[in-house]
Amino acid sequence: MVSLSIITINYNNRDGLARTMASVRAQTFADYEWLVIDGGSTDGSLDLIEANKELFSYWCSEPDKGIYDAINKGIRHAQGQYVSCMNSGDTYFSSETLQTVFASPLTADIVYGDWYKVYPDKQVLCSMPYPLDLSIFYYHNISHQAMFVRTSILQEKGFDLSYSVCADYARWMELLFAGATFQRVDTVVCSYDMTGVSSQPKAGLADCLRIRREIIPDWLRPVMQRFNQYENTADHIYLQHARERKGWLRFLLHNLLKLINFLFLHVDRRRLYSHRLPGQSPERP
């Protein structure tokens, strides 16, 4: 069994697919298989795939139901220990990325690192702390391009197609409450193309509200609903101003969620005093 299954999905994004293919081919790490799932492109992507088909353990080009249906197709054929989803247009940060990630044994169900959001005019570095708990996941998601997920978990249950753009976030929340283990690697994993559908402003707001409503356990939902109600009131304007003034109120909410984790989810006591919040640096150096 290979260590990694790289899944690349594509639909009418030949230029982006070419960038992703160049990134994967440049990796010094070789213990992977590569699966390419195309949605029936008509822009020349299929010609590019066929010209490089000897690189792929599996590929297809056929209509699908969207991003997560395409990823699920790849998951069903994956044979590696972990899955890395690198969509067309996204790239690994450097040719040494996978070598760095797999330099030490991966033991967790979900392994994650940092990532760059790539806009037309800038690149922004994003990171998530360790350990992760509800106080982090309630407000933040990890780019799935920066994650390595145990294949058996995703094959047991893939992404829910009823979510339009946040099926990955829903799956991570489910796994969090199911007791999945997380591991952070201290490296930048990928550059994430922010021109995609799921990256647009306000994309997935309805999905996020549904996730909070349906996936969070019943016993915890009243507390979360109070947060949601507060976010939808005029008082939330004050919250926004407070966030601008060094974010002290958000800091309090963040640590209240950590307290809930400690009391009810048996989180290690050290997490209660870890005040590091997910951050973004202004621009790539």
CATH class: Alpha Beta
Order of helices and strands: EHEHEHEEHEEHEHHEHHHHHE
Count the DSSP helices. 12
CATH fold descriptor: Spore Coat Polysaccharide Biosynthesis Protein SpsA, Chain A
Features:
Spore Coat Polysaccharide Biosynthesis Protein SpsA, Chain A, 10 strands, ten-stranded mixed sheet, alpha/beta, globular, 20% strand, 285 residues
Entry summary:
The protein has one domain: Spore Coat Polysaccharide Biosynthesis Protein SpsA, Chain A (Alpha-Beta Complex). 38% of the residues lie in helices and 20% in strands. The protein contains twelve helices and ten strands.
Describe this structure in words.
This protein is an alpha/beta fold and 285 residues long. It has one domain (4-204): Spore Coat Polysaccharide Biosynthesis Protein SpsA, Chain A, CATH 3.90.550.10. Helices cover 38% and strands 20% of the residues. The chain contains twelve helices and ten strands. Strands 1, 2, 3, 4, 5, 6, 7, 8, 9 and 10 form a ten-stranded mixed β-sheet that branches. The radius of gyration is 19 Å and the shape is globular.
Topology:
Layout: E1 4-10, H1 14-25, E2 32-38, H2 45-51, E3 58-61, H3 67-77, E4 82-85, E5 91-92, H4 97-101, E6 110-118, E7 123-127, H5 134-137, E8 147-150, H6 151-156, H7 167-177, E9 182-193, H8 205-214, H9 221-231, H10 235-244, H11 248-264, H12 269-272, E10 279-280
Parallel strand pairs: 1-2, 1-4, 2-3, 6-9
Antiparallel strand pairs: 4-8, 5-9, 6-7, 6-8, 7-10
